[in-house]
Amino acid sequence: MRQLSEHLRTAAQLSSDEVKALAAQGVKTLICNRPDGEEEGQPSAESMRTLVESLGMNWYFLPVVSGQVMDEQGDAFGEILAKAEAPVVAYCRTGARCGCLWALSLRHERSGERLVEALKLAGYDMPDFFKRLQG
Known about the structure:
It holds the Pfam family BLH_phosphatase. The chain is an alpha/beta fold. It contains six helices and five strands, in the order ββαβαβαβααα. The chain has helices at residues 16-24, 45-54, 71-83, 96-105, 112-121, 127-134; strands at 2-5, 8-11, 29-32, 58-61, 88-91. The chain has a five-stranded mixed beta sheet, with helices on both faces.
């Protein structure tokens, strides 16, 4: 997991056991940024929603196609974060889309340089996306 803010971590695809562990750790909200059917054997958003809600957590589904993260999706991610009960974990296949969405959600509040620095500190290495933020 990567820590992007005091209340937000990102992750790769979560298993049922990992979701249960997150609930036990006090995570209140999960955001899925992975479209259904992206990879064989991937749990469906509906099955994850059912599990998450059965554990008393909040669920948001904002599917984003890998490599096609749009500014508007970043805005939608920011809207979810603004109302989500913390702590929050967002996940996709590798966690990269979640990092992109987080940065895009803050693009009007922070400079591209500050966002790139924060992503790098969290362990992200996305040179093309970094150029987009700084461009």
